[in-house]
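Final report, closing paragraph on structural work. Over the funding period we assembled a curated collection of sequence-structure pairs, and we close with a single example.
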Amino acid sequence: MASELISKLPESYDKALSSGDLLFFPSTVNKHIDHGVEFEIRLCPALQNKPTLPTPHFAAPEDVPPRKQDPFAPPYTTNLFIGELQDEEGSEYVLLFNKYSVVPHHILLVTKEYRSQASPLLPPELAQIYTLLVATRQLGRRFFAFYNCGDLSGASQPHKHVQFIPLDDDGPPVERLARATNIEVEDRPFTLSALPYANHIRRLPRHLASAPPDELSATLADAFLSLLDLTISTVRHATDYPAGAPSYNFVLTLEHMHIVPRAREAHVLGATGEALSVNALGFSGLLLVKSERELEAVKEEGIAQILAGVALKSVHEKQMNESTDDQE
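Its predicted structure, as stored:
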């Protein structure tokens, strides 16, 4: 079923665009090397005209917002609706186009029943995300997935949704760095020490794309929980972290799972005094700006330092020492 939905993306996208239900904003990509990563800064001036969304209220899972306030509740906009999916446990999802598209075929996997964007990804959800990535690869395309969890993560809607972005190369940029990293133990978390902020990564087994459903779900859940544990540990080492559940950004490819704990939602650019919102795309190595002035300010300040400004300091070495002490 996933492959059927992915196979009709081009036709469905063209229909959504021509109907006016989907709005496409042209952009240009500027590459900028920083801390060993060839970051991509996408300049999209037309986004200055996009309606400004209010900061979402991340309600508890049981606090369901009114339907009129939830763009991911039915009835769905006809031409943004791609189809429905169901996981191994019977939970239902819908696949939708992102209404405001900077990259063609940017899609969303949304829980059909309301779940909070502040809640962690569950094993069946992880398996559904990975299955969609496998389906894109089988059809000769390359996507990656990301999830913004919590009120400091850069999320724009409180209804649980995972986003998928197509790639024209072997990216995203930070994934290239992860792929080039030599690690001693395949099933243990590692970090990209070249980056000036806490980041936690797990390399996934090479055979995972062809694994049976039970193994797929268990493997992804184990990876996610190990990274989430490190995220919570990182937050606990930050004495000034705000009260409440931690916020983080999640990125998934067929080869790696990444989680970056967040300290704040936006960074104030020194050159402009304006706030630049950052979500998981930034930590994958893709940043979005709305003007030439903002572009130059980002280059001047340095992308890695901007990301460090909204993330947490790495305590990976201390965490690994603590883990070793626990095992002795």
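The longest helix spans residues 213-237. The mean pLDDT is 92. We thank the funder for supporting this effort.
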